[in-house]
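Changelog note: in this version the structure field was regenerated for every chain. One regenerated record is shown below for reference.
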Amino acid sequence: MALDAVVEEVKSRQRVWEKEIDGMRAKKFSTMCVHGAYTKHEAIANNQGAIIEPVYTSTSQAFKDSDCLEAALAYKIPAWVYSRIANPTIGYLELMLSMLEAYGTGTKASTCCTSSGMAAIKAAAEPFLSDEKPGKKNIVSMAQVYGGTFQLFSERFAKERGVEVRWVEEPGNLDEWASKIDSDTRFVYGEIPSNPGICLFDIEGVARLAHAAGAPLISDSTLSTPALCRPLEHGSDIVVHSLTKSMTWNGRAVGGALVSRKNIVSGAISDEAKRDFAGYVKLWPLRDGGACISPDNAARTMDCLRVLKGTMDLLSQNAQRVAEFLEGHAGVERVNYPGLASHPQHETAKKYMKLVDSGENRYGHLLSFEVKGGHAQARKVLDNLELVFCATDLGRIKSVAVIPTISTHQQQGEEGRKKAKISSSLIRLCVGAEDADDLIDELKRALEA
């Protein structure tokens, strides 16, 4: 079969499936979570009628002849070829995430899944730091970010590669963002909300500042998930997730995701890369870097995504009750939770964090609180928790807690933690699906032990 005929035959089948996926995009969010891009036709035509996405653990794809092989390796036809580059199970997850993040925006997005959340952040950031664009380069990020992100920016990018990192210490202050973004800024970065300080930033305002300077905005929405906030809707160019956390709430998979809108803003990469950034990363830099998610982990994530809206609703309501209890306890100095009126960015949280298709505010499952009596007292409280697991994890169906200064943000150093306002008496608590009364009783006992 001639190469052109192969390409047309495969693309004809692809157009049929894409039309079915467009029909699914018109459905409600929860329906998308259940079905994703796995339609009835896809199940019967390509997967022997399996009603749930099969797990393709095979390393590679066979082709009927050399023309098909050539077309696939030249990226002229949709194919998965080799599981480091692509895989059917991973592809179903990527399409589902693209649909969920673009929900309500009137546009389409694309997704590249990775082996972890940090792999997704690195894959999203590195293309903008190449030397193809001459001149100085800087990145602007809020200081209140996950410890691994802080290390990536400050150690790998700043110290090892000479990239200037400009930290925004008050993410709610647009003037501070504006003072640090300029024509040499390669990308702007923020978390919504942040881990563990639970800070927020004005996505729309920061996106305007970034775009005016010709830079993209990358938003880490791990703690919100698309059930509570979809940054693409508000101007972000790229969204990154640790799928390990909230989206795979059963705790049985590690993975990451990079989701981009079409035609992102950037003066540092090619027009081809800007048109479909996630697709570009998947087929070129990540192909060479090899940080792919496994098919098994992709399937486990999809299993959890089926009920994402209901899960985030329940966890958020539990966290709200726990935060209100802690705020009123005499042994607690301060509580960081965006659902509390005392939170400095409460109004920003009300604007951006809403349970999809309901209009009701929900503020996520993560909170942090400072214990009166300093670090030693915080350790005693943590050590007295029994129902709540002591673990460097979050987004679980089970509640977990840590002291960030001795765990997730230990390597950040004293100066870095000071920028991020992480005190030694701070406990990060991720609220699970246990009964809120039991969690409150547990915390009360630990605080008073």
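Spot check on this record: The longest helix spans residues 3-25. The longest strand covers residues 185-191.
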